[in-house]
Amino acid sequence: MIATMERELGPIDILVNSAGAAKRTPPDDLDPAAWRTAMDAKFFTYIHAIDPLIKRMAARGRGIIVNVIGNGGKIASPTHIAGGAANAALMLATAGLANAYATRGIRVVGINPGLTNTDRVAEGLRAEARLTGTSPEEALKRALARIPLGRMAEPQEIARVVCFLASAQASYISGATITMDGVATPTVV
């Protein structure tokens, strides 16, 4: 795919990974296949694009990779253990690749959105409701109560940060994963 894109359109200077996410799975339903599926759905979709492209970028001496990961890699959730593990692995890969390729002109950064007003989050809230024996509306109410800003992010808010990180204005940001969760996890990193 990357070779075809570059042959037809020229060198890829910016890669934004914002791929599918792991299915929400209650802990009693986890098995090795569910863990592998979660890693394939999130971690390996990113790695399959990053690996060949970062090497091409390094050969050219420039490139930016922005990984939209997710706060599930920092905050354990009973219905997102396997997916959270994939997110945690992506955070480590983001920092490690940034360090490994910095001297070759490559920046690698991550974003960890919290709850964002998407169909995926609605699906997760339905899974949470089933696990806790509540309604999706109650799950949403509880989720919003944990966000000091009092609301979910809108997709456009995440996109604006992606655009900033991919721009020259963020030229000294690399190896970092920025949390965007409305202060739901007020931590120092």
Structural classification = alpha/beta
Radius of gyration: 17 Å
Low-confidence stretches: none
Largest sheet: 4 strands, parallel
Helix residue percentage: 40-55%
Description of the structure:
This protein is of the alpha/beta class and 189 residues long. It has helices at residues 2-9, 32-60, 81-101, 119-132, 136-145, 155-165, and strands at 14-17, 63-68, 106-113, 177-180. It has a single domain, classed as Rossmann fold (3-Layer(aba) Sandwich). The chain is built from six helices and four strands, in the order αβαβαβαααβ. A four-stranded parallel sheet has the order 1-2-3-4, sandwiched between helices. Strand 1, helix 2 (32-60) and strand 2 form a beta-alpha-beta unit. The termini are far apart.
